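Design a sequence for this backbone.
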């Protein structure tokens, strides 16, 4: 039986991109990226909204070039090796291997999919995750807090959501980034 895990990297004030859509300030250091790689070993399936998929599909080839850093190479290999589902009403197709396109997000069907998956299922993209969070099907929320305040932009969590969370893991990195992992109640 799997777990549905919503993970994000963002600012101290809860934004994953600024008001212009920029998130370069959140690019993980090598230390953080290696930690993500280790955590992602438990991931069997990834669920994406269309915008995050467009960002992530770079991993179809990124890290394969000669001289690529081993952390990026390892992440790319793992990403290409996992199944992915993109939920979108606007994308005409998906362009990466092991990826399917679904036109609607059905929380009951997603929960059943998670329950029959051996390993974690990650859900990415704040719009898609908000549907899962509101439906009460997310088991864990993980957040990499970057030591920056950006004031406005794309929120990790919807503003009208109320969740009871229990801290189950934390880690501090040399860069000042802090990883927080919470189980939902």
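Sequence:
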């Amino acid at each position: 039986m799997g777990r549905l895990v919503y993970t994000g990297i963002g600012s101290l004030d809860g934004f994953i991109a600024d008001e212009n859509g920029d998130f370069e300030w959140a690019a993980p250091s090598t230390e953080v990226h290696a930690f993500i790689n280790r955590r992602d070993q438990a991931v069997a399936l990834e669920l994406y909204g269309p915008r995050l998929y467009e960002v992530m599909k770079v991993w179809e080839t990124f890290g394969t070039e000669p001289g690529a850093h081993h952390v990026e190479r390892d992440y790319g290999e793992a990403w290409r090796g996992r199944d992915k589902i993109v939920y979108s009403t606007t994308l005409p197709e998906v362009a990466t291997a092991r990826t399917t396109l679904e036109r609607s997000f059905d929380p009951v069907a997603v929960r059943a999919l998670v329950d029959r998956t051996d390993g974690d299922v990650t859900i990415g993209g704040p719009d898609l995750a908000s549907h899962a969070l509101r439906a009460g099907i997310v088991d864990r929320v993980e957040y990499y807090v970057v030591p920056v305040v950006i004031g406005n932009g794309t929120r990790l969590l919807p503003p009208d959501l109320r969740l009871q969370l229990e801290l189950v893991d934390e880690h501090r990195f040399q860069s000042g980034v802090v990883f927080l992992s919470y189980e939902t109640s």
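The helical segments are 30-39, 50-56, 70-81, 107-115, 126-135.
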